[in-house]
């Protein structure tokens, strides 16, 4: 009893020790909406968010209908999937410009479970066997039950990964692997839509090499292609591509882009209705769209063991694609994203909506790019789109009965243009690092031969194995002999000219394993205001060493670079010299991080110079980034870099004195 009382008293003391500030900090960390809503600028941000929200709602509706069909469920469930997950992510997500909702890759993965457990028995989306729920058949309710179960279990897996703090392991997901996986998955999606584009009656084909079996079936049954559906599909694709290209070309001159998807849906639906294409030409149409929101109902738990594979695919593929977009928007608009918090946000965006008959969700590249182009500022744009989607669900939905399925398939294919255009990255990877190029190609091949989750797993394993074999060949320990006499100057003016020069030596290979850590710690050095000894301790943890700067005629460790940001009285811009003499090899991620460091420092008005760079590194950086600078940034040695700084500053002082 004594031991039990002691344990209870210890727990009670811990509970009493929790302060209100601790609870507040936890809520702000886990509910990002509490951070940006109180400081939301209604005057400056409401109008662009409203415009973006209206444009986003149009795309959410069209993609929701299309991706629901891709997921082998009734189109109305795509509307629900464009409503509920958006609200959840706006509360828990950190990406201000991330548009979550239905997603092609997760829809394709969940379709495997739907077709396996509830195989298609009829081509009609609605039959006479009414289940009493939303006016849909029992067959359709069984199908959405499986898709909702995939969403529920996938969300549970993502929440579990959040609790295990696995967000920090995302450094294993390199850009070539993500690019290859998403491109391969997009190829799968296009292939799955061929039956609608061609108007063919085709059985569901999946499994290993299913990608090739589909095209083999098409060529074997080429005579069964419906000419009317093919012509309408081609016309829709041409119109969509042409108008989208014009929107991109003139987006700087026009504030609102032309909603071509909406106009195409209206035009084809009206034409199909008046020409009676469903019966005259046999075109497959969407059919009845139920009105209103469904009552919450838990997904069928008895099928969870049957959908474990698809749930893991949804959890990993959806998170990887969404995180890449969140990190891209954070980099573009200068804010931070917590990888682990994104696990929680997307997990809850799958778990909670699964009770409202929603298919698996994730962020989509096309919708996020739309928010960029229309000038969205915050997640308010996504919430405004939810209001408009609600109007569609309650009022406009039934009018979509006559929408041809081949038009929806065309919208899906054109919407994947951004992912398919990632084939152009192959030239970039070839010029920067041919090993990354080989990883991209092999990951893409594995993805189209098997599945997106298999390709992702292969890419991660392949990258780790290659790095393990490359690291032993690199020099990890070296005795560096720095000739300090090279930096001794006789006059006081020379000493003053080098006060703001700081030197950082990169002593390890720069690859995906340590690139992000290097970037983070270097930015910390720039931001923090601490003593020189404290700075050196922090940097030594990640394999970088602070060299020295010349101050007052003697050599010492450098001061915190963050102090430079507050020294606005000095006319000279601070300079950061990166010594790359020990940077033995790098990959595409490492080059991207160096370019990001260069741009971050440029935004902070700090000049970055690189010394002792190998020719391959110089070529990769010049190819991978737009290094616009009036002065050269690559130097043969540290001494040549400091000489150039001194000459430039002496010339600047001379020019100022001449003007005076």
Automatic annotation (TrEMBL):
Chief place where the protein resides: membrane
Domain of life: Eukaryota
UniProt GO cellular component terms: membrane
UniProt domain STAS: residue ranges: 491-645
GO biological process: transmembrane transport
Record membrane topology: Multi-pass membrane protein
TM region positions: 64-92, 144-164, 202-219, 225-244, 256-276, 307-326, 347-366, 378-396, 401-423, 443-469
Keyword hit for Transmembrane helix: yes
The entry's keywords: Membrane, Transmembrane, Transmembrane helix
InterPro entries, sorted: SLC26A/SulP_dom (IPR011547), SLC26A/SulP_fam (IPR001902), STAS_dom (IPR002645), STAS_dom_sf (IPR036513)
Subcellular localization: Membrane
Protein name as annotated: Anion exchange transporter
Origin species: Buceros rhinoceros silvestris
């Amino acid at each position: 009893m004594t031991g039990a009382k002691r344990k209870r008293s210890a727990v009670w003391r811990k509970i009493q020790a929790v302060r209100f500030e601790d609870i507040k900090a936890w809520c702000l960390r886990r509910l990002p909406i509490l951070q940006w809503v109180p400081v939301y600028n209604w005057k400056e941000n409401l109008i662009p968010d409203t415009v973006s929200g209206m444009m986003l709602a149009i795309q959410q509706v069209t993609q929701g209908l299309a991706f629901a069909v891709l997921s082998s469920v009734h189109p109305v469930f795509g509307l629900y999937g464009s409503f509920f997950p958006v609200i959840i992510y706006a509360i828990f997500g950190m990406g201000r410009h991330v548009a979550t909702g239905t997603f092609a890759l997760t829809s394709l993965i969940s379709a495997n479970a739907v077709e396996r457990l509830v195989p298609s028995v009829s081509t009609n989306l609605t039959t006479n066997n009414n289940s009493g729920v939303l006016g849909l058949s029992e067959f359709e309710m069984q199908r959405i039950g499986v898709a909702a179960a995939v969403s529920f279990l996938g969300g549970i897996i993502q929440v579990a990964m959040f609790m295990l703090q696995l967000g920090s392991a995302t450094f294993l997901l390199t850009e070539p692997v993500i690019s290859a996986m998403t491109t391969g998955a997009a190829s799968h999606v296009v292939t799955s839509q061929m039956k609608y584009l061609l108007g063919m009656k085709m059985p569901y084909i999946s499994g290993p090499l299913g990608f090739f079996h589909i095209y083999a079936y098409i060529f074997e049954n080429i005579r069964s292609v419906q000419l009317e559906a093919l012509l309408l599909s081609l016309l829709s694709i041409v119109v969509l591509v042409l108008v989208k290209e014009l929107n991109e070309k003139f987006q700087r001159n026009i504030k609102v882009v032309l909603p071509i998807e909406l106009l195409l849906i209206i035009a084809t639906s009206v034409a199909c209705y008046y020409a009676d294409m469903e019966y005259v030409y046999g075109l497959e149409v969407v059919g009845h769209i139920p009105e209103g929101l469904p009552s919450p109902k838990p997904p069928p738990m008895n099928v969870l063991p049957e959908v474990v594979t698809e749930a893991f695919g949804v959890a990993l593929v959806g998170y990887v694609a969404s995180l890449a977009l969140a990190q891209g928007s954070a980099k573009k608009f200068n804010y931070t994203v917590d990888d682990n918090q994104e696990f929680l946000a997307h997990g809850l965006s799958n778990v909670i909506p699964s009770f409202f008959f929603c298919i698996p969700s994730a962020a989509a590249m096309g919708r996020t790019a739309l928010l960029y182009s229309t000038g969205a500022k915050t997640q308010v744009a996504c919430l405004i789109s939810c209001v408009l989607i609600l109007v569609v669900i309650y009022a406009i939905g039934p009018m979509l009965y006559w929408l041809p399925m081949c038009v929806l398939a065309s919208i899906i294919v054109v919407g994947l243009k951004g992912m398919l255009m990632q084939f152009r990255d192959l030239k970039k990877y070839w010029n920067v690092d041919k090993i990354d190029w080989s990883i991209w190609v092999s990951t893409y091949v594995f993805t189209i031969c098997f599945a997106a989750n298999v390709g992702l797993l292969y890419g991660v394993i392949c990258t780790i194995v290659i790095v393990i074999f490359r690291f032993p060949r690199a020099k990890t320990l070296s005795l560096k002999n720095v000739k300090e006499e090279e930096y001794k100057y006789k006059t006081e003016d020379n000493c003053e000219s080098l006060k703001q020069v700081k030197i950082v030596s990169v002593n390890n290979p720069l690859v995906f394993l340590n690139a992000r850590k290097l970037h983070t710690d270097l930015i910390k050095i720039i931001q923090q205001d601490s003593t020189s000894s404290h700075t050196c301790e922090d940097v030594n943890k990640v394999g970088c060493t602070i060299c020295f700067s010349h101050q007052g005629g003697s050599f010492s460790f450098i001061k915190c670079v963050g102090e430079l940001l507050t020294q606005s009285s000095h006319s000279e811009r601070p300079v950061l010299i990166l010594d790359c003499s020990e940077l033995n090899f790098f990959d595409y991620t490492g080059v991207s991080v160096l370019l990001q460091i260069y741009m971050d420092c440029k935004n902070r008005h700090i000049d970055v110079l690189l010394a002792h760079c190998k020719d391959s590194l110089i070529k990769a950086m010049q190819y991978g980034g737009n290094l616009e600078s009036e002065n050269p940034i690559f130097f043969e040695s540290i001494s040549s870099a400091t000489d150039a700084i001194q000459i430039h500053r002496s010339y600047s002082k001379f020019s100022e004195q001449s003007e005076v």
